[in-house]
C-alpha cells in the first residue's frame, strides 16, 4: 500500500460530505425531542455501523481487539468518551447556530486542537518544523484556521441580518449567537479528543494491519477496529447524558409514539395542526429510519477518514485538518441549499465565499505538503 496524498485528500472530502450531511435527516423528524433522536442516531453511528463494517472488512475483528493490550483499549476509549462530550455539545451548537455557522466555529477549534496537539504531545512537532513538507503542512493548517475565522465573521453578520421568524422557517427556531458561541467553542475543543483517541489507539491499528496482511486483507482497513473502540467510549458519554435528559424531560414515552418537539424541524406549515396527538406507526417508523440514517452518515465520515489517513504518509496528523476543512465546506454548501444565507447582504455572502475559498486552498496546501514529504 503506497502513500498517495491525492487519493487521501479525496477520501477525506468524501468523509467530509458524509459528516456535513449528518444533520439533514434530523429536520424531517416529526415531534421527537432532541435526546430521543440523538441517542438513536448515536446507537446507529457509534455501535451498530462500526461493528458491522468492521466485521465486513476485517476478518475476525474481535480477535484483533482481544490481543490488544488492555491499557491501549482503555486509553483509546477514554479519549473517545471525552470526544463524546464534544459530539453531544456539537449537536447543541448546530441547534443554536444553524448548520453553516455551528460547523464553522465548533470545527475551527476542533481543527486547531485536534491537528496540533498530538504531534506536540509526542514530540513530532520538532521534526515537522525541520522538514519543508512539514512546514508547508503547518501553513495549510494556519490557512484553515484563518478560513474558519472568516466563516465565523460571516455567520455573525448573518445573525444580524436574518430576521428571527425567517430563521425559524428554515429550522433555526432556537438560534442564539451568544449561547451558541460558548457551546461551539467547548464542543470544538472537546471534539478534538477524537484525534487523541486515534493517536492513543495506533497500537490497535498496527495489530489490525498485521492481522489483515496475514489473512490476505488490505491495509486500507487497519483503522476500522480502532474506530470501534473510540466510538464505544463516545457512545457511553452520550448515552449517559441522553438518559439524564429523558428522565428530566419525561420524554421516554416518545420512543413509542408520544409527541415531543423537534428543535431542528422547520416551523409547521399548518399552524392549526394538533401537535398533541400520538405519532402514527408510519411516522414513528419514519423517525427511527431518519435518525438511523443520520447515524450511518455520521459513521461514514470516519470510515473514509480512516482510509484517507492510511494514504497521507509520515505526517498523517494533517488528516485532521483535511477532514475538518472538507466538513465545513460541505456544511456551508448545505447552508446555501437550505437558504440559510438567502437574506444576507452582499458583504456577508462575500465573507462566506472567501471562507470557502480559503478552506479549499488549505486542503490543497496540506495535500501538497504531504506530497513533498512523500518524495523526501
Structural notes for this entry:
This protein is an all-alpha fold and 376 residues long. The model is unreliable at 268-273 (pLDDT under 50). The chain is globular and about 65 Å long. The chain has 15 helices and no strands. The chain has helices at 5-20, 34-57, 61-66, 70-97, 99-121, 124-130, 132-161, 164-169, 177-191, 193-200, 202-214, 224-249, 281-309, 319-337, 346-375. The chain has one domain (5-268, 277-375).
Low-confidence stretches: 268-273
> How many β-strand runs?
0
Helix content: over 70%
What is the CA-atom radius of gyration, in angstroms? 21 Å
Could you give the order of the helices and strands? Answer: HHHHHHHHHHHHHHH
Please tell me what the overall shape is: globular
Whole-number tally of structural domains: 1
Structural class category: mainly alpha
As an assembly, this protein is single chain
Terminal CA distance: 18 Å
Please summarize the sheet with the most strands.
none
How many helices in DSSP terms? 15
What share of the residues does DSSP label as strand, in percent? under 5%
Mean pLDDT: 82
Amino acid at each position: 500500500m503506497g502513500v498517495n496524498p491525492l487519493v487521501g485528500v479525496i477520501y477525506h472530502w468524501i468523509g467530509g460530505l458524509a459528516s456535513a450531511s449528518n444533520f439533514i435527516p434530523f429536520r424531517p423528524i416529526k415531534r421527537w425531542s432532541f435526546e430521543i433522536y440523538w441517542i438513536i442516531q448515536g446507537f446507529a453511528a457509534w455501535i451498530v455501523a462500526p461493528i458491522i463494517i468492521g466485521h465486513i472488512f476485517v476478518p475476525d475483528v474481535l480477535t484483533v481487539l482481544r490481543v490488544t493490550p488492555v491499557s491501549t483499549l482503555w486509553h483509546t476509549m477514554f479519549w473517545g468518551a471525552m470526544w463524546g462530550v464534544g459530539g453531544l455539545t456539537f449537536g447543541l451548537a448546530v441547534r443554536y447556530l444553524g448548520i453553516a455557522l455551528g460547523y464553522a466555529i465548533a470545527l475551527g477549534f476542533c481543527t486547531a486542537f485536534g491537528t496540533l496537539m498530538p504531534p506536540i504531545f509526542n514530540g513530532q512537532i520538532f521534526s515537522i518544523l525541520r522538514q519543508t513538507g512539514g512546514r508547508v503542512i503547518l501553513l495549510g493548517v494556519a490557512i484553515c484556521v484563518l478560513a474558519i475565522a472568516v466563516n465565523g465573521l460571516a455567520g455573525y453578520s448573518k445573525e444580524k441580518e436574518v430576521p428571527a421568524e425567517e430563521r425559524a422557517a428554515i429550522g433555526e427556531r432556537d438560534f442564539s449567537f451568544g449561547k451558541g458561541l460558548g457551546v461551539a467553542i467547548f464542543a470544538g475543543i472537546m471534539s478534538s479528543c477524537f484525534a487523541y483517541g486515534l493517536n492513543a489507539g495506533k497500537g490497535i491499528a498496527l495489530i489490525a494491519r498485521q492481522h489483515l496482511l496475514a489473512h490476505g486483507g488490505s491495509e486500507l482497513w487497519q483503522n476500522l477496529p480502532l474506530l470501534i473502540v473510540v466510538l464505544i467510549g463516545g457512545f457511553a458519554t452520550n448515552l449517559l447524558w441522553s438518559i439524564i435528559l429523558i428522565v428530566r424531560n419525561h420524554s421516554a414515552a416518545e420512543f413509542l409514539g408520544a409527541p415531543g418537539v423537534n428543535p431542528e424541524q422547520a416551523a409547521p406549515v399548518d399552524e392549526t395542526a394538533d401537535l398533541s396527538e400520538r405519532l402514527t406507526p408510519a411516522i414513528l417508523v419514519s423517525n427511527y429510519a431518519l435518525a438511523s440514517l443520520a447515524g450511518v452518515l455520521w459513521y461514514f465520515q470516519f470510515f473514509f477518514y480512516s482510509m484517507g489517513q492510511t494514504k497521507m504518509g509520515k505526517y498523517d496528523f494533517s488528516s485532521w485538518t483535511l477532514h475538518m476543512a472538507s466538513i465545513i465546506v460541505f456544511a456551508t454548501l448545505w447552508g446555501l441549499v437550505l437558504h440559510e444565507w438567502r437574506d444576507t447582504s452582499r458583504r456577508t455572502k462575500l465573507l462566506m465565499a472567501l471562507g470557502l475559498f480559503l478552506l479549499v486552498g488549505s486542503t490543497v496546501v496540506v495535500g501538497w505538503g504531504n506530497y513533498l514529504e512523500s518524495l523526501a
